[in-house]
Design brief:
There is one protein chain. This protein folds into two domains: 391 residues, Methanol Dehydrogenase, Chain A (8 Propeller), CATH 2.140.10.10; 127 residues, Immunoglobulin-like (Sandwich). 2% of the residues lie in helices and 43% in strands. The protein is built from one helix and 58 strands. The strands form 16 sheets. It has a five-stranded mixed beta sheet, with no helix packed on it. A five-stranded mixed beta sheet has the order 51-58-57-53-55, with no helix packed on it. A four-stranded antiparallel beta sheet has the order 2-39-38-37, with no helix packed on it.
Length: 717
């Protein structure tokens, strides 16, 4: 079993080496990376404090008008039969388009509707797409709102409108406009609106749309109809993943500053009923919250923060907003609207916000402010950086990855990157961007994407790495106190030896999780050398390893990426199911299925003949406790033109024990060795793209916990 494991891993890696490199397997599917709007991508492995200085312009695309929305990135939109990484962006002229993330080639473009009026918050008073869209990976639909208040559901690969869409969401689009990002949470699409230049009458709403019926399911009005209370923050609503609570911050009312829930921080339940709200008391008029609430945790409680146009940063116990603010920090003088949002780097503990002007006290400077949570569970300034102009115009919001924070200087036309723990400068975009950039960049898969008022979407990236990696098995689930082991192979596809090659956990890995790696003899799987000893890898050659994971506490860690690194080159990109591992450490005995797949060609590729079916076999062993599981197949979320079924087989004859089905319930005893066959047909062409086009077999319990997996590449002949 173990020898076959290592050989299959090497063969899988050879398959990857002949395919495109640099793919990534997670999405930037919504503003701020996830519905909580943390603006932190924990799965970024290519960009690090060491590689960020290598960022350089890769491509740009002209959309013809100012861009105020954040790009979203989807890794597996199927283009020409191949799962492809696309970036989507909208502009003020109503253009909404998809581009190949690697090349900048336009894949499709839609002309959505606009409003045109005398409000100059967008250039030339034209309002099309400003709110960042959201992607649903389950349906491969992108939801986007336009200037006519219509909500569209577009196919991510073609841009075609799904049946039953668009629907009218914003009731008075001549007075009301979607500035904030859309969300996908609680099975609903959340849409929020404000107005044009505060021109009366308008009403700030939160709409909860049921995507299954294409109808508005619930509505929350900030104040009485026509009396203002817009939701202006570019992040829209923030959703707490643990409680599914929805948080918004609102602008001023019209009849009075605080009519209804105007100028409040508000907690809503999934039905949009108010759970808590508070007005913190501000000086002056038109003192909107121009930003989205930020959710974070302290040793004392779970908190929410928001920043106000008066220059005040307010924090609350987010489970008790009615009790009033925990802190009110005057970080600006109120001359520059604080319309930016927050970001957090959990690996350094820093919380960031962009500040357009200095505070009256001089304590808080313009630029990037970094806060820590102190011993009293309050925000305390750690450092600041002040690039770009000190003006009364907004700055872009920050974005973080482990160890790095990015932010743009608004009218300064420049993106900067700093070490998040120290504030040391790492990189800036120089003179590439020719217009203002007011929204946070998206950082994913070794690239930085940002839109600008010079009408362009920009992509920056680092040189491609010659490193590829593969792991087998793809999942381990062990009892706490045991060691979870997998085998890995690193391949150097360059023409030169790479030195000091090593494997490590990223800084974003769960606390307490530890990794030891050791080279192995690929012929025997026997360890060689010493633990955690970096090694050279010869040109166009590979090196095999055994990896051992331990942790002092129970945890579930799906799709854990690893840092595969060598001196002088960038890290290998993460491809889920190929060089990631699902880890479970259970406080009680648990099933642990080691599964291996074999194709007819014995090269890890399932080749489906035109008009016929193909199959691959899976051998497994339960090296853990007896478990009741469901075995199923899937395509890793890609909408390939492939249908797959499976059956459990007689280990001696290979014959199915029951007709093939989408899933098979099994009880696997300890040390049992069940076998399976997976059958696949194709309804169209599936080109060779082994890092992206794959068929997976997974062992899952009733709680959705994965206990084992394997996969093969798939293509049509």
């Amino acid at each position: 079993m173990s020898m076959r494991l290592c050989v299959c891993g090497f063969l899988l890696l050879m398959v990857l080496a002949s395919g495109p490199a640099g793919a990534q397997s997670n999405d930037w599917a919504t503003y701020g990376y996830e519905p909580g709007r943390s603006s932190y991508n924990p799965q970024e492995l290519v960009l690090t404090p060491q590689s960020v200085p290598q960022l350089q312009p890769q491509w740009s695309a002209d959309l013809g008008a100012a861009i105020t929305s954040q790009p979203i990135i989807v890794h597996n939109a199927v283009i020409g039969g191949v799962p492809t990484e696309l970036v989507y962006i909208g502009a003020a002229n109503g253009v909404f388009a998809a581009f190949d993330a690697a090349t900048g080639t336009q894949i499709w473009s839609r002309q959505l509707q606009i409003q045109s009026n005398g409000c100059d918050q967008q250039p030339n008073g034209i309002y099309g797409v400003a709110g960042t869209p959201v992607h649903d990976p389950a349906t491969h639909l992108i939801y986007v709102a336009d200037g006519a208040g219509l909500l569209y559901a577009l196919d991510d690969a073609t841009g075609q409108t799904a049946p039953g869409w668009p629907i009218q969401v914003v009731p008075h689009p001549d007075h009301e406009f979607v500035w904030g990002a859309l969300s996908l949470a609680n099975g609903r699409i959340l849409v929020e609106n404000a107005s044009y230049c505060d021109i009366a009458p308008y009403t700030g709403f939160v709409f909860s749309v049921d995507p299954a019926t294409a109808q508005i399911a619930d509505t929350f009005a900030v104040t009485t109809i026509g009396d203002g209370g817009g939701i202006w923050g570019y992040g829209g609503a923030a959703v707490d993943a643990a409680t599914q609570a929805i948080y918004v911050a609102t602008g001023n009312g019209l009849s009075t500053e605080t009519s209804g829930y105007s100028e409040d921080v508000i907690r809503l339940d999934p039905t949009l009923a108010v759970v808590g709200a508070n007005y913190a008391g501000f000086v002056g008029g038109d003192v909107d919250y121009g930003a989205t609430p930020f959710l974070y945790s302290t040793p004392c409680n779970n908190q929410v923060a928001a920043i106000n146009k008066s220059g005040v940063l307010v924090t609350y116990d987010r489970d008790n907003i009615d009790a009033g603010p925990l802190q009110k920090l005057q970080i600006g003088d109120g001359g520059g609207p604080l319309v930016g949002d927050f970001a957090q780097d959990p690996t350094t503990g820093m919380i960031f916000v962009a500040n357009p002007d200095a505070s009256p006290s001089g304590t808080y400077q313009h630029g990037l402010l970094a806060f820590l949570v102190n011993a009293s569970c309050q925000l305390e300034l750690a450092y600041s950086q002040s690039p770009g102009p000190n003006t009364n115009g907004p700055l872009a919001s920050p974005t973080t990855i482990a160890g790095v924070v990015f932010f743009a200087t608004g009218g300064g036309n420049t993106v900067y990157a700093y070490k998040s723990g120290t504030g040391n400068a790492l990189w800036n975009s120089g003179s590439t961007i020719q217009g203002a950039a007011y929204v946070a960049p998206a950082v994913i898969g070794g690239q930085v994407f940002i839109g600008s008022w010079d009408h362009h979407l920009y992509a920056f990236g680092v040189p491609a790495s010659p490193l590829d990696a593969a792991l087998l098995p793809g999942a381990r689930s062990v009892e706490l106190g045991s060691v979870a082991t997998v085998f890995a192979t690193m391949l150097n596809s360059s023409n030169a030896t790479l030195d000091n090659c090593r494997i490590a956990l990223p800084a974003s890995a769960p606390g307490g999780l530890a990794l030891t790696y050791q080279t192995t003899d690929p012929a025997t799987n026997e360890p060689t050398g010493a633990p955690n000893l970096p090694v050279p890898i010869a040109a166009n050659a590979g090196q095999s390893f055994v990896l051992s994971f331990t942790t002092p506490t129970a945890l579930s860690d799906p799709a854990q990426g690893l840092v595969f690194a060598c001196d002088g080159v960038n890290n290998a990109a993460a491809t889920e199911g190929v060089d990631t591992v699902d880890l479970t450490f259970s406080a009680t005995p648990i099933a642990d299925i080691v599964a291996l797949a074999a194709t007819a060609s014995n090269n890890g590729i399932l080749q489906i003949p035109q008009g016929a079916a193909a199959a691959f076999a899976v051998a497994s062993v339960n090296v853990g406790a007896t478990g009741s599981l469901t075995v199923s197949t899937d395509l890793g979320g890609a909408a390939l033109l492939v249908a797959a079924t499976l059956c459990q087989t007689n280990p001696s004859s290979g014959q199915c024990l029951a007709p093939p089905a989408a899933s098979v319930p099994v009880t696997i005893d300890a040390n049992a060795t069940p076998t399976f066959s997976v059958f696949a047909t194709a309804s169209g062409t599936v080109p060779f793209a082994p890092g992206a086009s794959r068929v997976f077999l997974r062992f899952v319990d009733a709680n959705g916990q994965q206990h084992g997996s394997t996969s093969v590449a798939v293509m049509t002949e």
